[in-house]
TrEMBL record:
Species assigned in the record: Haloferax marisrubri
Domain Gfo/Idh/MocA-like oxidoreductase N-terminal intervals: 6-120
SUPFAM superfamilies given in the database record: Glyceraldehyde-3-phosphate dehydrogenase-like, C-terminal domain, NAD(P)-binding Rossmann-fold domains
Protein name in UniProt: Gfo/Idh/MocA family oxidoreductase
Molecular-function GO terms, alphabetical: nucleotide binding
Residue span, GFO/IDH/MocA-like oxidoreductase domain: 133-255
Source organism superkingdom: Archaea
Classification via Pfam families: GFO_IDH_MocA, GFO_IDH_MocA_C3
Cited InterPro entries: Gfo/Idh/MocA-like_OxRdtase_N, Gfo/Idh/MocA_Oxidoreductase, GFO_IDH_MocA-like_dom, NAD(P)-bd_dom_sf
Annotated PANTHER family: D-GLUCOSIDE 3-DEHYDROGENASE (PTHR43249:SF1), UDP-N-ACETYL-2-AMINO-2-DEOXY-D-GLUCURONATE OXIDASE (PTHR43249)
Amino acid sequence: MTETPVRVGIVGCSSMGRSHAEALADIDGAALVGCADHTAETARSFGETHGCPSYTDHADLFADAALDAVCICTPNGAHRDIVVDAAADGIDVLCEKPLEITPDRVEDMVEACRDAGVTLACILQRRLFPTMQFAREVVRDGRLGRLVFADVRVKWHRDRSYYDDSSWHGSAGLDGGVLFTQALHGIDLLQWVAGDVSRVAGTGDALYHDIDAPDTAALSLRFEDGALGQVSATTATRPQQPISLEFNGTEGTLRVTETGVELFEVNGEKQPVELPDPRPEGPHVAQIRDFVEAVSEGRPPMVPPAEARKGLDIIFAAEASDSRGEWVSVPSLGGLGNLGDADD
C-alpha cells in the first residue's frame, strides 16, 4: 500500500452506502472524501455523519472531489450512467451487485471502463464465506466424483412493506426482480462452485407481491461439463430460509448453507469438514478492502467484470427463455448485446 490514501466517493447514500462508508472507515489506505444522492436531505445527513462534502448530482462529486475511486450504491437499474461518467473522468469503480439489469447496460459499463483504462469491480462478497470456499474446493477437486446435479435455493420472505415503502423495490426498471436483487448471490455461487453454465430454461412471475417484476423464479440449467442444475428463488414464501446449495456427484453429495455444512458424504461415509478461517472483518468489508488495495497496487480486483457477468449471463438467458418458451444458450462474454436484441 502507498502512504497516500485512495480517495473514495460514494454515490447512493441509503443503507448500502452507509455500509460502504463504515467499511471504508475501517480500511487503512482509504479516505471517504465525498458523497452524492439525488435526495438532498439524504446526501446532507450522510455527509454530516461521515464528515465529507455532499452533493445531489454525481457529476458534481466527480468534478469537485478529486476522486481515485467511487462506490456505486444506487438501485440496480441506476448504475450504468454513473459508471460511464466515472470512467470518463478516470475514476476506478466498485459497483454493488448486480452490475446492471439489461445486457446492453452491462456492456456499456464494461466497455466504458475498459476503454478508459479504469478498474471496474463488483461486490459478490459471499464468495468469501468459508462454506462456499470449502464447497468450491470439494467440487473442483473431484471429491464427489463426476458432477451430476447442482442446485441453489433462495427461498426468502419480504413483507409487503419492503416493496410498498421503497421507491424502487419491485420496479421492473430499477429492481429487475428476485433474480437480480435476491438470487444473484446464489446463482453466482452455484456457477462459481460447479462451473460454467451453457444453457438455461427459466420462468418467473409476481406470485404474491403486487409489483412490476417477478418475486418468484425457477430455472433449469445445463452446465458445460454436462451436469444438470436448478435455481429456485422467491421472496413470497415463509419462513425465510438461508441460501442453500447442493452438489450431487457419482461418488457423493455436499450440501451447504452460508453458515454451515449440512451434508458431506462420499461412498456412503460421512466426510470430515475443515473450513477455512472466516475473514475477521466480515466478507463485505474484506471485498471492499480488496478493491482499495487493487486500486492502490494496480492489480485486478477480486471480482472483475468477467466474473461479475457470469451470474448475470445466466439471468439474462433465463429472461430470454421465458420470453421465447425455449432453452437459451448462455452468451459468451462480449455477446450480451445480441441476447438483448433478441428479447425486444
